[in-house]
C-alpha cells in the first residue's frame, strides 16, 4: 500500500511550511484516509516517519522529540542505513527488504518500508 509513502511525502511538504512533523503526519493521514479512522492512526508507518524526523534524517525537518516509538523508529533508521550502504537494495521486493531489516525475525512488515523507500526515492533522506 503506497498510500503511507504518499502520506509521508505530504507530511514533509507540510512540515516545510512550519507545521510540526507530528501535526503534519496527522493532517496528511487525515487527507489520505478521510473515512478510515484506523488507517489514519496506524502507528507503525507514523512512528517510522517520526523516528526519521526525530533524528534529523528528513530533509527540511529539524531533529527534535516527535515519537516515543523504539521499534518502528529503529526499523526505519536501520533501513535508511542499509540503503545508504547498498542503494541497489531499494529495488528488492518490500518483503525481502523487510527481512533484511529485521534480520529474518518473524516480524510482520506494517508499512514502515514503504515510508522509508518513498522518502529515499524522493531524495528527502540523509544520513
Describe this structure in words.
The protein is an all-alpha fold. The chain has one domain. It has seven helices and no strands. The chain has helices at 3-15, 21-32, 37-40, 43-54, 71-85, 94-101, 112-121. Helix 1 crosses helix 7 (112-121) and helix 4 (43-54) packs across helix 7 (112-121). It is globular. It starts with a helix and ends in a 6-residue tail after the last helix. The mean pLDDT is 96.
Salient structural properties:
0% strand, 7 helices, mainly alpha, 127 residues
Give a nutshell description of this structure.
The chain is built from 7 helices and no strands.
Query: Which oligomeric form is depicted?
Result: single chain
Q: Percentage of helical residues?
A: 55-70%
What is the CA-atom radius of gyration, in angstroms?
A: 13 Å
> Based on DSSP secondary structure assignment, what is the total number of beta strands?
0
**Number of alpha- plus pi-helical segments:** 7
What structural class is derived from the secondary structure elements? mainly alpha
Poorly predicted ranges? none
Tell me the strand percentage band.
under 5%
User: Biggest sheet, in brief?
Assistant: none
Shape designation: globular
What is the H/E order? HHHHHHH
- Head-to-tail CA distance between termini: 25 Å
Amino acid at each position: 500500500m503506497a498510500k503511507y509513502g504518499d502520506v509521508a511525502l505530504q507530511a514533509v511538504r507540510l512540515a516545510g511550511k512550519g507545521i510540526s512533523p507530528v501535526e503534519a503526519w496527522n493532517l496528511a493521514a487525515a487527507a489520505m484516509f478521510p473515512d478510515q479512522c484506523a488507517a489514519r492512526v496506524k502507528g507503525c508507518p507514523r512512528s517510522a516517519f517520526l523516528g526519521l524526523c526525530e533524528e534529523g534524517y528528513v530533509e527540511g525537518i529539524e531533529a527534535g522529540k516527535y515519537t516515543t516509538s523504539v521499534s518502528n523508529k529503529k526499523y526505519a533508521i536501520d533501513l535508511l542505513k542499509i540503503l545508504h550502504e547498498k542503494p541497489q537494495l531499494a529495488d528488492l521486493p518490500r518483503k525481502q527488504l523487510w527481512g533484511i531489516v529485521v534480520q529474518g525475525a518473524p516480524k510482520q512488515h506494517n508499512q514502515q518500508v514503504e515510508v522509508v523507500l518513498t522518502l529515499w526515492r524522493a531524495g528527502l533522506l540523509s544520513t
